[in-house]
């Protein structure tokens, strides 16, 4: 091969390698941006879920504690205490149901954030 022909071939190879490198660089930039968007969305979802879960969990804990007190009154055989604790349990249970309705669980990240970048 002549030196000129070899030089031209090297230019084409270099140009091809640079073009492939530019395309791959663009793909990586887009993929990183998509991944960052997904990460941000799931982070927001986790915060929302934690807030809702905490409200629902607190209401459930209060209701469970009232049920424990109610059962203690049943064990003690105290009719007045039983009636008082039953009303307390029913009130807290209604609040728990209302709390659950007021704080529905958020849709799963796959439904609101789309698919993660791969």
Can you tell me about this structure?
This protein is mostly helical and about 120 residues long. The chain contains three helices and no strands. The chain has helices spanning about 5-75, 80-100, 110. Helix 1 (about 5-75) packs antiparallel against helix 2 (about 80-100). The longest helix has about 70 residues, at about 5-75. It is rod-shaped and about 110 Å long. The mean pLDDT is about 90. Keywords: Membrane, Transmembrane, Transmembrane helix.
Notable features of this structure?
mainly alpha; transmembrane; single chain; 86% helix; 118 residues; membrane; transmembrane helix; 3 helices
Q: Can I get a quick summary?
A:
With 118 residues, the chain is an all-alpha fold. The chain contains 3 helices and no strands. 86% of the residues lie in helices and 0% in strands.
Shape: rod-shaped
Give the termini distance in whole angstroms: 44 Å
Strand content: under 5%
Encode the helix/strand succession as letters. HHH
Number of helical regions: 3
Would you tell me the overall average pLDDT?
89
Give the helix level as a range of percent. Answer: over 70%
Q: Structural class per helix/strand content?
A: mainly alpha
Total E-strand runs? 0
Tell me the radius of gyration: 32 Å
Largest sheet: none
The low-pLDDT segments are: none
Keywords: Membrane, Transmembrane, Transmembrane helix
């Amino acid at each position: 091969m002549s030196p000129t022909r070899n030089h031209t071939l090297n230019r084409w190879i270099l140009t091809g390698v640079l073009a492939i490198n530019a395309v791959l660089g663009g793909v990586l930039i887009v993929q990183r941006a998509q991944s960052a968007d997904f990460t941000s969305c799931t982070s927001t979802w986790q915060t929302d879920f934690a807030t809702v879960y905490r409200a629902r969990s607190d209401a459930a804990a209060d209701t469970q504690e009232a049920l424990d007190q109610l059962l203690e009154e049943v064990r003690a055989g105290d009719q007045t205490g039983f009636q008082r604790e039953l009303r307390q349990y029913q009130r807290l249970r209604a609040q728990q149901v209302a709390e659950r309705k007021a704080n529905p669980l958020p849709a799963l990240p796959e439904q609101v954030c789309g698919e993660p970048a791969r």
